[in-house]
Amino acid sequence: MPCDFLTVERYDKIVLAKVTKDRLLDPISINALADELNSLVDKHMHISLILELSEVSFLSSAMLGKLVAVYKNVIKLSKGRMAITGVKPAIMPLFKITQLDKMMQFAPDAQEVILLYRRKPL
Amino acid sequence: MPLEVLPGPPPPIGGCLFARSWPSRIDHKQEVLDILVAELLGRGFITAEEEPWAVLVLDEVVVNAMLHGNEGDPTLSVVIALFADDTGRWVMTVRDQGQGFDPASLPDPEDPASLLLEHGRGIRIMKEWLADLVYYERGACAWLARQRADRPIAAPPESP
Predict the structure, then answer these.
(1) How far is CA B99 from CA B9, B69, B77, B93, in A?
(2) Which CATH fold would you assign to the domain B4-106+118-147?
(3) Residue from B59, B62, B106, B111 to probe the interface with A (highest A Cβ count within 10 Å)
(4) Strand-strand pairing, A23-24 and A58-59
(5) For residues B43 and B37, what is the distance between their CA atoms, to the nearest angstrom?
(6) What percentage of chain B reaches a pLDDT higher than 90?
(7) Confidence at residue B154, expressed as pLDDT on a 0 to 100 scale
(8) Which residues of chain A neighbour B115 with C-beta distances below 8 Å?
(9) Which of A48 and B120 is assigned the larger pLDDT?
(10) Which residue of B has its CA nearest to A67?
(11) Partner-chain contact A97 B124, CB within 8 Å
């Protein structure tokens, strides 16, 4: 099923994927988003994936699990890197208590990460 | 702290404020969550700021009951009840018709090897927000408790 709540901008191998949905709770949305992100990863070797979540207010542990799967694909299959940006303060504790903050890179602003990735290409 | 899964029924709690049964249909989940969150907000048991956590925790427990406990069988029900106990806590029980589960089958969220697993974070998240999470009836009845937002625990008096 296509993901109609993800906008994608490409800057060479830097891919900015922005979620434009408030709730990532239902299995259909979660699977559609994960499939779309994985298809982006499949298309790009050495991808620099930036996932922008500033519009997301609710997400489930199933979504966290899918993000781990995408992260593993980025690192292992694409030999790339991944950052998550714009996470709202109310949901940042989710990433902390599940220790995903130690595994993935987080930043408040996507543009900041784009500049960083441009300065340090893979 | 490992998750407690006890064989017997939950202890009596007090007056039941709300009880309702739903078929195990995941496409009804959003309706269930909306009703439960409205109950908690409407009674002043949680604040608006707590809503994202409440949604998340209730999503976990309802999905577990429908998909794992009842294995997605729409002929089986999930019964959810809300209570307020005399210690100022709200308690919610979520009972499915499954056989329960073995807590040893759950990944240890503290184990670094679990970090890359794509499942097993739900219980950790629920325990973070709740004051108490216990499973009774071998895992078929989740017991969730948290201090009521409208009855915060009084701060201890300052020493002179």
Answers:
(1) 13, 7, 13, 16
(2) Heat Shock Protein 90 (3.30.565)
(3) B59
(4) parallel
(5) 10
(6) 65
(7) 62
(8) 99-100, 102-103
(9) A48
(10) B118
(11) yes
- How far is the C-alpha of A64 from the C-alpha of A81, rounded, in Å? 17
Q: What is the pLDDT of residue A9?
A: 95
Q: Which residues contact A94 (CB under 8 A, 6 or more apart)?
A: A59, A64, B56, B125
Task: Give B55's contacts in chain A (Cβ within 8 Å).
Answer: 23, 25, 58
Number of A–B residue contacts, CB under 8 Å? 59
Write out pLDDT tens, residues A13-32: 899 999 999 999 888 999 99
Average model confidence (pLDDT) for chain A? Answer: 93
**CB spacing of A69 vs B118 below 8 angstroms:** yes
Rg of chain A (C-alpha set): 13
Other Cβ atoms within 10 Å of B23 Cβ, number: 13
Please report, for residues A43, B16, B63, B93, B129, the alpha-carbon distance to residue B147 in angstroms, rounded to integers and kept in the order given.
49, 16, 23, 15, 10
Domain count, chain A: 1
CB B93 within 8 A of CB B81: yes
A26 in any annotated domain: yes
Residue A64: pLDDT over 80: yes
- ipTM of this complex: 0.76
Banded model confidence at residue B13, pLDDT cuts 50, 70, 90: confident
| Amino acid making up residue B35 | I
Classify residue A1: in a domain, yes or no.
no
CATH code assigned at A27: 3.30.750.24
Q: Domain spans of chain B? A: 4-106+118-147
